[in-house]
Specification:
Aldehyde Dehydrogenase, Chain A, domain 1, Aldehyde Dehydrogenase, Chain A, domain 2, seven-stranded mixed sheet
Length: about 500
């Protein structure tokens, strides 16, 4: 922890036009260690509309010069940032564990994902960004190119405080946009460290601006700002729908990556031990706090008893604790509010007559009582229409649903408003491909859990999970660029497309 000389945690400002500034209103908020609520990591600027205005103005001023910087040179900045992240991986991971709570091995993976995205996007800096297309007229050339949108607002969540900002920032910056980043209020310090790295890597002043604060006080003004041309948001469906409505009224580009109610389908012929491995990792990795986390297990009734017995035996051995402790399997929930939300769904499940197999309570024994810990929870006898099988909980809770056969399991898996990530376990390739064709999700896994996306492939969902955009992979540029079509006529005379095409 970084302290001032008097032992108090540091106070951090916003990054605006290359300077770190206090919030205009002078307010601050604290970032706490979710494993130990008494540990304050720092005091952070509680930004408002005036701070957002300053950040957007800085971005507007910096964007033209950054756009005119050749893309290979922009890529060099991103490559240097990736190398700096790699050099500081352990430091960043340990900070992330203290601020977000995920176990250290997962925090290292979060940082590695940011490094990988930097490397991937830096490599795109010398790749084609358009195409040459033949004209129907003589002595005429046609081509397309991708151009930056302008100033982009990026609003990121707390569960992947390094990876998701990198998913957005690296392609947005490489494309030639200036960015205003509003990170989640639970993990501002990780975002500040990322901004410092990009600045050290040579990003010009004002190209990246960062404002910390609450969503309604800093995020909402960013979304509504008339000079912000596009918004990229990852978070809840409820907030995403509000952002979509605002952007729709303003005619503004918006990319939404929202929630999931992801399921693993366990077929009658599945490798049950492998499926249990997937259920544990998918359901309790990151304490269930992933948009791709497994929250439903849809199991063929012929193997349901055996599967549940194996699963319960493994869950009983999971260890809760501080993510910096190598013995810890499951870390804390992000904050006290989310802890209450997770427990409220336990009560909802009980009231609906689902049967609680394990967990279902706040872990407040000994040192666990100093943090936001919840025992891994499994419900069985769950019906597809129950709220615990329909609504995103975002915590360490699994619902087990029986299925009559694979077709019934696929029907149940598709029976939510979400469509992010679904998985099927089977040893039969024909059955696997049959399910892949019918599962309604942006991401489908076979014999692997619902988590584990790689940055070189598109990421995103269908139905209520998003609005059609994809992040990462070959589609990373899509949300941050516009197509420009160029016609060059060197014939020296007026030529009319569709009319003069038969001239000799």
């Amino acid at each position: 922890m970084e302290h001032r000389e008097n032992g108090e945690p540091r106070t951090y400002g916003n990054l605006i036009a290359g300077e770190w500034r206090a919030a205009r209103g002078g307010g601050t908020f604290d970032s706490l260690n979710p494993a130990r609520r008494s540990e304050v990591l720092g005091h952070f600027a509680r930004s408002g509309e005036l701070d957002v205005e300053d950040a957007v103005s800085a971005a507007v001023a910096a964007q033209p010069g950054w756009q005119r910087t050749p893309m290979p040179l922009r890529a060099e900045v991103i490559a240097r940032a990736g190398r700096l992240m790699e050099e500081r991986k352990e430091e960043l991971a340990r900070l992330m564990t203290r601020e977000m709570g995920k176990v250290l091995t997962e925090a290292r993976g979060d940082v590695q994902e940011g490094i990988d995205m930097a490397k991937y996007m830096a490599g795109q800096g010398r790749m084609p960004v358009g195409e040459v297309v033949p004209s129907e007229l003589r002595d005429k050339r046609c081509f397309t190119e991708r151009v930056p949108i302008g100033v982009v607002g990026c609003i990121t969540p707390w569960n992947f405080p390094m990876a998701i900002p990198c998913w957005k920032l690296m392609p947005a910056l490489l494309a030639g946009n200036a960015v205003v980043l509003k990170p989640a209020e639970d993990t501002p310090l990780v975002a500040i460290r990322l901004a410092e790295i990009l600045t050290e890597a040579g990003l010009p002043e004002g190209v990246l601006n960062l404002v910390t604060g609450l969503g309604e006080e800093a995020g909402a003004p960013l979304v509504a700002h008339p000079r912000v041309r596009a918004i990229s948001f990852t978070g809840s469906m409820e907030v995403g729908n509000q952002i979509a409505a605002t952007c729709g009224k303003l005619g503004k580009r918006v990319s939404l990556e929202l929630g999931g109610k992801n399921a693993i389908v366990v077929g009658a012929d599945a490798d049950l031990e492998l499926a249990v491995d997937g259920a544990l990792w998918g359901g309790f990795g990151t304490t269930g706090q992933r948009c791709t986390a497994t929250s439903r297990l849809i199991v063929d009734q012929s193997v349901l008893g055996d599967f549940q017995e194996r699963l319960l035996g493994r869950v009983a051995r999971l260890r809760l604790g501080d993510g910096l402790d190598p013995a810890t399997d499951v870390g804390p929930v992000i904050n006290a509010k989310q802890l209450r939300r997770v427990h409220s769904y336990t009560e909802i499940g009980r009231q609906a007559s689902a049967r609680l197999l394990v967990g279902g309570k706040v872990a407040d024994e000994g040192e666990l009582g100093e943090g936001n810990f919840y025992w891994p929870t499994i419900f069985t006898d769950v019906r597809p229409e129950m709220r615990i099988a329909q609504e995103e909980i975002f915590g360490p809770t699994l619902s087990v649903l029986p299925a009559q056969d694979l077709a019934d399991a696929v029907r149940i898996a598709n029976g939510t408003r979400y469509g992010l990530s679904l998985s099927v376990y089977t040893k039969d390739i024909s059955r696997a491909l049959w399910a892949v064709d019918r599962l309604e999700a942006g991401i489908v896994y076979v014999n692997a859990p619902t988590i584990g996306a790689e940055i070189q492939l598109p990421f995103g969902g269908v139905k209520g999970t998003g609005n059609g955009h994809r992040e990462a992979g070959s589609t990373a540029f899509d949300e941050f660029t516009e197509w420009k079509t160029v016609y060059i006529d060197y014939s020296g005379r007026l030529q009319r497309a569709q009319i003069d095409t038969e001239q000799g």
